Amino acid sequence: MSRSKPFPVFRLLCAAFLLLLVYAGWVRTNTGDAVSAPLRVGFFPNITHAQAVIAQEMAAEGNHFFSDRLPGKIPIAWYPFNAGPTAIESLCIDSVELTYVGPNPALNGYVRTKGTDVRQLAGSAQGGSALVVQPELAGHKTPRDFIGKKISTPQFGNTQDVACRVWLKKGGLRVTQTGGDALVVPAANPELVQSFGLKQIDAGWTVEPWVSRLERDFGGKIVLEQPNDITTILVASEKTMRTKPDIAR
Fold first, then answer.
1. pLDDT of residue 13
2. Cα end-to-end span (Å), the chain
3. Which of helix, strand or coil describes residue 48?
4. pTM above 0.90, yes or no
5. How far is it, in rounded angstroms, from Cα 10 to Cα 30?
6. Residue 172 to residues 24, 138, 165, 166, 201: CA-CA distances in angstroms?
7. 10 Å Cβ neighbour count for 10?
8. 241 with 119: CB under 8 angstroms?
9. What phi, psi does 36 have (nearest 5°)?
């Protein structure tokens, strides 16, 4: 009895598998090990994250100035976030390896992980945040002026949100997550600007370019600035520091 011929699909699968092995061997031979995965870096579309905003735009235009200066010229994948707490959460679950972020979310992440994660690499930006009020509230300059008022911040627990709550509490106001003497309402920056324009909030505590948007588009008045405060830092996960020390450096 003659033996049956192998099923054609099976033979095709075998051939494809062999080609895959040959290709994998070629990749290791020609790249030294394996194709380098992109370095995943988080940032916000704010002027206070200028390094990342500029780098992403340059890369989109084919200019890889930043990645060309990393060991092995590893490509960079840029991940935009609205505010710090979300970026730090992504860092802790390894969705990103580094991120530009405000100091408060970075500190919160360090405390929450009991010091096992979140490592500061460098400072990045100073100043650029402000409290902006509606034009008719330009005379409101102390925390007590904001009793019964609604202030919006980029996200609960982000650097501006914490600064706002601390400032109000230091002024003697009782502020809770959901109310108190003054209401602090977290909202993404585009929503914050929209709410300000619709007069749904009395003030916004945010960063550039949103501060200038509130001024230019709706006549907002700056009543408090933080020119000397650190607005942005660059942090890495402990895993990145351990497994990619040359890149982190």
1. 42
2. 69
3. helix
4. no
5. 30
6. 66, 21, 11, 10, 21
7. 9
8. yes
9. -70, 130
Contact 189, 154 (CB under 8 A): yes
Ranges under pLDDT 70 in the chain = 1-35
Q: What is the pLDDT of residue 226?
A: 84
Q: Which residue has the tokens 């588009």?
A: 217
Give the per-residue pLDDT at 6.
42
Question: Which single residue is written with the structure tokens 């929503």?
Answer: 191
Q: Give phi and psi for 117, each to the nearest 5.
A: -145, 175
pLDDT of residue 160: 92
Q: Is 227 exposed, middle or buried (0-12, 13-18, 19+ CB in 10 A)?
A: exposed
- Written as six digits, the tokens of 59 are 């890369």
- Sorted by sequence, the CB contacts under 8 Å of residue 113 that are 6+ apart come out as 92
86, 43 contact by CB (below 8 A): no
Q: Among residues 203, 208, 225, 214, which one has the least CA distance to residue 137?
A: 203
pLDDT 10s digits, 56-107 = 999 999 999 999 999 999 999 999 998 888 999 999 999 999 999 999 999 9
What is the Cβ-side half-sphere exposure of residue 209, based on CA atoms within 13 angstroms?
A: 9
Q: Computed from CA positions of residues 82, 85, 88, 92, in that sequence, does the dihedral angle turn out positive or negative? A: negative
